[in-house]
């Protein structure tokens, strides 16, 4: 019965004039049927037009709804996209200024690997690492060249750190602090040297210093991967480019012959970038060894080991041949900059 009535109402709803006529006739005879008819029609229409979004907190999402409903989509072309990007981000630079440190080619380019040096037919039987004393000379050192050509941004941060430390410790306190840092570095290097030398030549008392115990603990996992030490605390000089330096170590790290540079730090340096100019220093030493007649071998890799005072595991940063070549080119640019600054003409 209910289904029949609903179908009847649907037919009537399609022709409102008939519904109005029946409505008037029924209303004149009896009021009750009229009320039933009106109520049924009202309920039916409400069920048909139920909108679930009316239950949503409209005030809460008012701004979101407005932004969506007021947006008029339009077909986009590359020209319109470019125009919108120009309004949002500004016009692109058609000719961006190149980064000289990365794109320039050194005027006096010298290869990292010496093509004129030949490896010996037989490996040296000496079990002692090479150790050549650094002589006083007018030839600039790698450290001096990097200090004189430090980038402005790096110099700014270094000076800000210095002023902050002076504010906390005072000038005398800061001088004492830096003095202790250099002393700890020397003791750390001496202790490592003792580890790589035969027992009869090692300086045992160096390894017992409590000031460097944390650093030594820090590098233990790295030392397990080092073998065949060839050089320890030895002077190197690039015979063509005329600069010199003191190499910490040359040995194999996981089977690759590397120039190894030991660094101490109180702060974590988990990335190569966080070591600042150290990669340039290593690349400079690699090139110097390859162009120094005192060494009958060549190196193409580098390793920077950052040891920590609190004893947490050191970070070893390995530099493969490609990475060494990249930093070698950057080093040549810094060397040219230094030569230009110090050239009296």
Features:
globular; five-stranded mixed sheet; 5 strands; alpha+beta; 345 residues; 12 helices
Helix/strand/pairing class, anyone? alpha+beta
Amino- and carboxy-terminal Cα gap: 114 Å
Strand order of the largest sheet: 1-2-3-4-5
**Which of globular, elongated, flat, extended, rod-shaped describes the shape?**
globular
Largest sheet entry: 5 strands, mixed
Number of helices: 12
> How would you spell out the order of helices and strands?
HHHHHHHHHHEEEHEEH
Give me the Rg, rounded.
Answer: 40 Å
Strand content: 5-15%
How many beta strands in the DSSP annotation?
A: 5
Low-confidence stretches: 19-46, 70-81, 93-102
Helical content stands at 40-55%
Query: Whole-number average pLDDT?
Result: 78
Protein name: Mitochondrial genome maintenance exonuclease 1
Keywords: DNA damage, DNA repair, Exonuclease, Hydrolase, Mitochondrion, Nuclease
Subcellular location: Mitochondrion
Function: Metal-dependent single-stranded DNA (ssDNA) exonuclease involved in mitochondrial genome maintenance. Has preference for 5'-3' exonuclease activity. Necessary for maintenance of proper 7S DNA levels. Probably involved in mitochondrial DNA (mtDNA) repair.
